[in-house]
Please model this.
Amino acid sequence: MASSLARRRFLERSAAAAAGTLAVAAAGAAASRKIRVGVIGCGSVSHAYLPHLARSPFVELVSVCDIVPERAVAAAKAHGIAEHHAGVEAMLGGAAFDLFVNLTDMQEHERLNRLAIAAGRHVWSEKPIANSVAAAADLLALAKRGGTRLWAAPTVVASPQFATMVNLLGENRLGRVAAAHASYGHTGPDWAPFFYAEGGGSLPDLGVYPLTTLTGLLGPARHVTAMVSTVTPTRTIKGRGEIAVVAEDNAQVLLDHGSGVISHVQCGFNYFSARSHDERSQHHHSLTIAGSAGTLALAGYDWAPHGVDLATRDHGGEFQRLSREPGGYAWENGASLAAESLATGRELPITPEQAIHVLEIMQAAVEAQRTGRRVTLETTFTWPIRGLSEV
Model:
């Protein structure tokens, strides 16, 4: 584990970012400049992203694009956006913009991100960042050569609850940390087939969240052991009928973080819940970290946290609720934070290196199932995670 001093420095630098807010705007400071934003993918996810971007004082929405032209037209009309396009080439050749926000099917992220970077655009991508670790690394190298920035969802390391957990671990409130567990699942999307196609699955859609949180809290993984399976061989998709399921829809992943620390993530598209899968009703402990002197738990999912619960030997072993308020954090805030970073120069705790590491974990899980072997990871990222740098 990192030293308490390192974690305190992280908190000092990241308080604003961890709140997930547009910190400078909240303090009453005017945006130094507007970042011109183009959004590709006007489906369901855009209904959360576009309003968040429209509220940002750092953003000027200039262009939207979708392969279903009617969706792009509707998005442009709803948010007063001047241009709408049916293809990425027309979008990149149209009105100039700085930040390319990619909300398309996950298998398309790599291709579209590459085109945008080659055209000199900064990129915020929904997860995953690419279809392979090698391709993701190549995208990052291409961006660095061209002087552009690349980020990818999820934004879980930017929540105040994540910062609280970092602080408690840094204060050694749990004693010697031994293990962690996270669980995230529902009965599976029925509105698009890409979740079940090659390159999809419950890991890149769901498992990516706790894998990002746990590597952020416990450090990069060194080895992966896993089992994945397909429980439901066919799915019925609205407007498409029945499709064959190719990707896994059930995963159990074991991570070795070094120094004896082990974590486990389970996820799947076959998890019934008595409550609807939304941020209000899911307030159970979705993630726990156990140590020799205490247990730390996240109430709610890390993309919509309700609070942090801490139980320690020194306080009778009963959970105490900490960090209740979201502080303006929202899972859809990533592109807005990227625009703020570009406008102000403040660095985000969200990094492409961690996104690539988590992508390798997910692909190593599939490899572990295929071979029956423990997989050694090659990627890493700077840890502990840094937040906004002082300006």
